[in-house]
Amino acid sequence: MSTAAGPGDGSGTTRAVVVDDSRFMRTLIRGLLEDGGIEVVGEASDGSAALDAVIEHDPDVVTMDIEMPSMNGIDAVEEIMGERPTPVLMLSAHAEENADVTFEALDRGAVDFVTKPGGEVTSSMPRVKRELVAKVESAARADLSATTRLSSAASDNGGTAAAAAGAEGATTAGGSGAARRSSRAGRRSDNATGAAEASPAGHAAAAYPDVGTLVVGASTGGPNVVERVLTDLPREANLRVLVVQHMPEGFTERFATRLDGRSDYDIREAESGERLEPGAVRVAPGDYHLVTTSDRNGRLRLDLTETEPVHGVRPAIDITMASAVETVEGPLCAVLLTGMGRDGVDGVGRVARNGGHTVAQDEETSAIFGMPRRAIESGRVDTVAPAEGIAESALAYFAEE
C-alpha cells in the first residue's frame, strides 16, 4: 500500500491513479472521483504508462480500463502486482464480451470492478459517482495478500489448482483437491465411482441429509472465494446453494457460467419462479433481490424482486438470508465472505437465532474484513474459517445433521 497520505495512515484521503486511453474518459473519471473526495494524483493512457505512474505516485488505488493500446488493462494488472502491488479497480464496459476479461483481471490480482461510466451526462450520473467512489474507497482498503493468494489459485489451470492455496494448515473439503478435478466431466466421473473418496475426511457420503441448504454472501474480493467454496463442495453432499455476490447487472450471468465450469454442481443465474433442487446452485442476478418462497407442495421456489436496495446494494445478502429462514425446511447454513459494510450481518443473525449454522471468513484471507468482522462481533457466528476452510466448515455441519 501507499506510504503517502491515504487510507493506511489515518489521513482519510484516498489517492488514486486513473488509467484510460481516452483523455475525455480520464477527465470524466477524475472529476467524479474528486467530487467524491478522492485525490487523483496521476493519470496514464495505457498499461505501460500505468506502471510508471504507480511507481512515481505510489497511490492507494488504481482505476484501470481494460481495452488500451500498447498494453491492455489485464496485462497491466499483472505488471503492477509483480512490480509494485497496489489495489486495482477495473472499469469494465457493460457488455457480455467484457465480463469474461473482467473476471480474468480478477484472476490476475485486481481487487474489484465497476461498470465504466458512459460518456454522456445524464440524470444517473450522481448514482454513477456514488458507486464509483464507494468502489474506489473499498478497493483502496483491500488486503492484497489475501486477494493475491486467491487470485493465484483461481488463475492456475483455469481454477483447477485452487486447492493449492489451502495446502498449508487448514483442512479443506475433499482432501486432495488437485486429484479431484482435472475437468468437469472428470470430476463427475470421479464422484460417481468414488464418492466416499471425494468426501471430506471423516464424513461419508451417506452422512449428509437428504436436503441441506447453503446461502453464501460476498462483496469486494468475493468472486474467487465464492469459486473456491463451490469447487470444494462434493456433489454427493446434494446441497441446494444460493449465492449473493455484489456485482453489477450483466455480469452475474457470466459469473455463474464461469462457476459452472469449475464445480460439480449445476450453476446458473437465478430465474424468477424456478424451483431450487438439490445439486443446484443459483446466483442472484445483478440489480435484483433473490428471495425464497414455498410452492403449494412445500417445495423451495425462487423469486426476484426490484424492491429498494438494502445497505445501498441490490442484490442484498440480508434479503436472501432472511427469506431462507422463513421458508427453508431442514438444515440451513449461512456463509458470509469478504466485503465492506454490514450486508449479511443481520441475515447471519437470523439464521443463528433460528437454529441454523453460520460461518464467517477469517481476517487473514479476507480482502475486506468488514462484513465478516461485524458478523463475528455480533456473537452470532459459529465458525470462523479461512477461504480454503469455508466449505469444510459448512460440510461438517451438514454431515452432523
Structure overview:
This protein has 401 residues and is α/β, with parallel strands linked by helices. It folds into 2 domains: 7-142, Response regulator (Rossmann fold), CATH 3.40.50.2300; 178-400, 3-Layer(aba) Sandwich (Rossmann fold). The chain contains 15 helices and 14 strands. The chain has helices spanning 23-35, 47-57, 73-83, 96-108, 125-140, 144-155, 177-180, 184-193, 195-198, 222-231, 252-260, 317-327, 345-353, 370-377, 390-400, and strands at residues 15-19, 39-44, 61-65, 88-92, 112-115, 212-218, 239-245, 266-269, 280-283, 289-294, 300-305, 332-336, 357-361, 383-385. The strands form 3 sheets. The protein has a 7-stranded parallel β-sheet, with helices on both faces. Helix 2 runs parallel beside helix 3 (73-83), helix 6 (144-155) crosses helix 10 and helix 12 packs parallel to helix 13 (345-353). It is elongated. Mean pLDDT is 85; it is low at 1-6 and 159-206.
